[in-house]
Amino acid sequence: MRTAVVTVVHGRHAHLTRQLAGLARQTRPADDHVVVAMGDAQVRAVVGTAARVLDVPAGARLPLAAARNAGADAALAGGAELLVFLDVDCIPGPDLVARYAAAAQDDVLDSGPVTYLPAAADYDLATLHTLADPHPARPVPADGEVLVAEDHRLFWSLSFALTGATWTRLGGFCEEYAGYGGEDTDFAETAHAAGVPLRWVGGAGAFHQHHAVSRPPVEHLDDVLVNGRVFADRWGWWPMQGWLEAFADRGLVRRTADGWVAA
User: Fold this and answer.
1) Using CA atoms, how far apart are residues 209 and 206, in angstroms rounded to an integer?
2) Is the N or C terminus of the chain more exposed, i.e. has fewer CB atoms within 10 Å?
3) Please, what are the domains in the chain?
4) DSSP codes, 78-115
5) Cβ atoms of residues 82 and 195 within 8 Å
6) Residue 162 pairs with which residues in a beta bridge?
7) pLDDT digits (tens, 9 = 90+) for 87-120
8) 39 in helix, strand or coil?
9) Cα dist. 2→50, 78, 167 in Å?
């Protein structure tokens, strides 16, 4: 099965360099790697010949959904039968592509376990496996084991895979979303509504490189409200409830009969 990795990026060049190094160490190398640069002209110099770069224009709100769709379209046009989406912050474990390829089948959505790495000036890829400590809120199947998830809301876009046929069936990411949040939850809800199960693939591990974050992400408050409204209009409930409630505790938003609004 011809496999393509799709990565969308804006900045994070050091993280992208480590991801490229991780992909070079795969026990089953990907057949293609499409890096989608969102308004970032420097990405080509970072990538060199390690992947092919697709440029997508970006405004103040990064077009994450549209960029993923463009990357998938390019990969499928290049003959890909399996799409592996990998967040730019993630270094793939050496068996990630192999495990996704071994588990691949139509009409499923697969995710592998992700470990959040501690802050460090650099990471040694040869010993990265010793830091494996997958996110406690998600299942961690044994290497080679595949578990069907009970809740599509646990899906995240850091690392996931699906066949080209499944991607086409689901229609990709909804491009009404831009900026921070919502589009990945929407994608999972689309899969759920279509009867496409979410599965956890043991051994398809990835390591999320550390970067500074705000908790709650106050710099993304406007995006959370705009994208939350898009989601609520499409599905009848609001995502990102934890962030919204944290914003409310700080007096930044309030709940109304019609949903969340800025305070």
Assistant:
1) 10
2) C
3) 3-208 (3.90.550.10), 218-262 (no CATH)
4) TT-SEEEEE-TTEEEPTTHHHHHHHH--TT-EEE--EE
5) no
6) 83
7) 999 999 999 999 999 999 999 999 999 999 999 9
8) coil
9) 17, 10, 15
